[in-house]
Amino acid sequence: MADRRTQEDMIELLHHDHYSCEELANLLELDRHYVEHEALTGHLRAILVDHHIVSISRDAVVDWLRQRHGVVG
User: Fold this and answer.
1) Quick one: 56 exposed, middle or buried, by C-beta within 10 A (0-12, 13-18, 19+)?
2) Cβ–Cβ under 8 Å, residues 25 and 46
3) pLDDT at 14
């Protein structure tokens, strides 16, 4: 039953327009620190407030995946 809940959570995340670092890391199965690093260095566009990542748009994620990871879509 836990796997089903996790799958439902991931499907829910796919419908978001914006993500936190933790949500995006969970969705893409990446380390949260890697996602934070990519956002803080400007490789992944994000809304920052005083060096804190507030939000990452779905469009920014798609662009980042295309540029950095060769994902085409």
Assistant:
1) buried
2) no
3) 83
Distance between CA atoms of 44 and 15, rounded to whole angstroms? Answer: 19
pLDDT band of residue 1 (cuts 50, 70, 90) is very low
Distance (Å, rounded) from C-alpha 47 to C-alpha 40?
10
Query: What pLDDT, in 10s, does the model give residues 23-69?
Result: 999 889 999 999 999 999 999 999 999 888 999 999 999 999 999 86
DSSP 6-43: HHHHHHHHHT-SEE-HHHHHHHHT--HHHHHHHHHTTS
Q: Which amino acid is at 3?
A: D
Q: What is d(CA 66, CA 14) in angstroms, rounded to the nearest whole number?
A: 17
Rounded Cα distance between 17 and 13, Å, is 9
